[in-house]
Structure formats: structure tokens, C-alpha cells
């Protein structure tokens, strides 16, 4: 079957890069770079990689890493804003950081916290740190998350961004076999337009998307 973009569903992607393990295609509409479906890991193989992660809220280095999203997003939230950490992983930490400053948090992870009731509530903000590059269907997942946001709510995404084909060829980020989607700034701008959200980029690997208060708001 002809592959379609997992973000915008456009057909006819173009070849972007190939290494010894995988092919990488680029969408001509949203510029997402992605691995063909048949070259992805199965769920057991994928979880085996995640099980090796040793992230913990007791690790100061991991907290500093997450602060690249935490700090700009926390600065934009009203007191008591309620959040969801989507893809929290085996050692939820960002949720702890937000709770420490007064934001009630829920968590969801398909492997480690799979209670889907968390995906049926309404939130003032949703975070996904180092998550979107793992998603097989990022378009559908991110649209669903945006639909859980209250008016004016925030979607905070942290992932390293594609810069150029030359940089991509030597990029350590593509060596992780669970990384299958690679966003550029153009991809996030397409997503924001699709979801009718405003987007900003407070750092090289963070995108903040804000839901408009009502149709027609700037």
C-alpha cells in the first residue's frame, strides 16, 4: 500500500533518508519525517526498550531536563490549573513537578498507566514530553488531546526537531528504534493551524500550543 503521512494523512511522501536499519519518508504537506509502518517495532519490543528507562523524580538531572517544558508552561498557567501528563512512562516525574507548585495532575501511559478514564476528562493543560516521536498515529492522538482542553488550555510538547536532511543523517535521535515520527517547526505550525491553536517555541525542543477561547479569537 502507498504510505500516507501519520500526521496529516497526505499520500505520496518522498524519500528523505535511509540508514542500515530503516527508511525515513517526508510528507510534502506538513513536512513530518516518519518511518514506514512495516519497519516499526511490535508492542512487546517497544515496551522492552521503555523498560530500560530509569527516570525518577528523585533524579535532579532528569528534573533539569524536564524543566525545559515545565518552566515556560508553568509560567503561563493560572493557579490551580488541572493537567494531564500523557505518556508519563515508568517513572512519572513531570506530573510531580506540577503538583509541587499546586497543579492537580492525572497521568496516562499506554504501557504503565493505561486507565483510559484519564482520556475522558477536561484539562487546563496537557503535557507530552519525549512522546510524539513514538506515536504511530500522531495526527489522531494530538487531535484527541486537543479536544480534552478547556478553552484557553495549553498543549505542551517536547521533542527534538528536524533541522535539515544533512543534520538528520548524523542525528543521534534517529538511532532509538522506538522513534518513528520526527517533527520540524513547519510540522508544528501545520498542526496548530489544523487544530485552530496558536503555537510558540520557547526552546529548541519545546512547542506550546494554546487552544483559542472561542471561534474567531486571535
Describe, in plain words, how this protein is organized in 3D.
The structure is a single chain. By secondary structure, the protein is an alpha/beta fold. The chain has a single domain (14-211), classed as 3-Layer(aba) Sandwich (Rossmann fold). 26% of the residues lie in helices and 23% in strands. It has helices at residues 43-50, 60-74, 94-100, 138-147, 165-169, 185-195, and strands at 14-18, 23-26, 33-34, 83-86, 105-108, 123-129, 149-158, 181-182, 197-203, 206-211. The chain has a six-stranded mixed β-sheet, with helices on both faces. The chain has a four-stranded antiparallel β-sheet with strand order 1-2-3-8. The radius of gyration is 17 Å and the shape is globular. The model has no long low-confidence stretch (mean pLDDT 95).
Topology:
Layout: E1 14-18, E2 23-26, E3 33-34, H1 43-50, H2 60-74, E4 83-86, H3 94-100, E5 105-108, E6 123-129, H4 138-147, E7 149-158, H5 165-169, E8 181-182, H6 185-195, E9 197-203, E10 206-211
Parallel strand pairs: 4-5, 4-6, 6-7
Antiparallel strand pairs: 1-2, 2-3, 3-8, 7-10, 9-10
> In the CATH hierarchy, what is the superfamily?
Vaccinia Virus protein VP39
The assigned CATH architecture is 3-Layer(aba) Sandwich
Largest sheet geometry: 6 strands, mixed
Q: What is the spatial order of strands in the main beta sheet? A: 5-4-6-7-10-9
Shape: globular
Strand element count: 10
Our measurement of the CA-to-CA distance between the termini, rounded to an integer number of angstroms, reads 40 Å
How many domains make up the 3D coordinates? 1
What is the share of helical residues?
25-40%
What is the N-to-C succession of helices and strands?
EEEHHEHEEHEHEHEE
Strand content: 15-25%
